[in-house]
Amino acid sequence: QAQLVESGGGLVQAGGSLRLSCAASALSVSNYVMGWFRQAPGKEREFIAGIRGRGIGTRYADSVLGRFTISRDNAKSTVYLQMNALKPEDTAIYYCAASRAAVVLFDAKFYDYWGQGTQVTVSS
Q1: Weakest-pLDDT range from 25-29, 37-41, 60-64
Q2: According to the model, what pLDDT value does residue 34 have?
Q3: Which residues, 6 or more positions from 96, have their beta carbon under 8 angstroms from its beta carbon?
Q4: What is the DSSP letter of 31?
Q5: Across the strands, what pairs with 59?
Q6: pLDDT (mean) for 21-45
């Protein structure tokens, strides 16, 4: 059974940084598109960043472009989300997800496996 486990969330002041990790088991991140999503209270889950399993290719939501960076360590089967210049509006639960798609897709329905989420809170 494939499993994704996020870690690295926490409380940070505006302008600060956090790095989220997503450790995959029974699943090779090199064979999947890996994505990060987030969901704030009262809002729908939204795509943040994604990285192709093979080759080169990343996509970002406009709201985080230039501030967040997604990366992958295939040897550790782990995906990271480096978050810089955090804003209070980045406060949400952040989820890692894996998709069998060939390209990075924004729609959560195309993702097959999900982690349990990690809370990120940015204070002003």
Answers
A1: 25-29
A2: 96
A3: 4, 6, 20, 22, 34, 35, 36, 79, 114, 115
A4: G
A5: 50
A6: 94
How is residue 27 annotated by DSSP? Answer: S
pLDDT on residue 46: 97
Quote the pLDDT of residue 56: 78
Computed from CA positions of residues 4, 18, 71, 102, in that sequence, does the dihedral angle turn out positive or negative?
Answer: positive
C-alpha Rg value of the chain to the nearest Å: 13
| Cα dihedral 59, 65, 68, 73 in deg (nearest 10) | 20
Q: What share of the chain is helix, strand, coil (3-state, %, to 5)?
A: 5, 50, 45
Which amino acid type is present at position 34?
M
- Let me know: does 11 contact 119? Beta carbons within 8 Å: no
Q: Which residue carries 């406009």 as its tokens?
A: 62
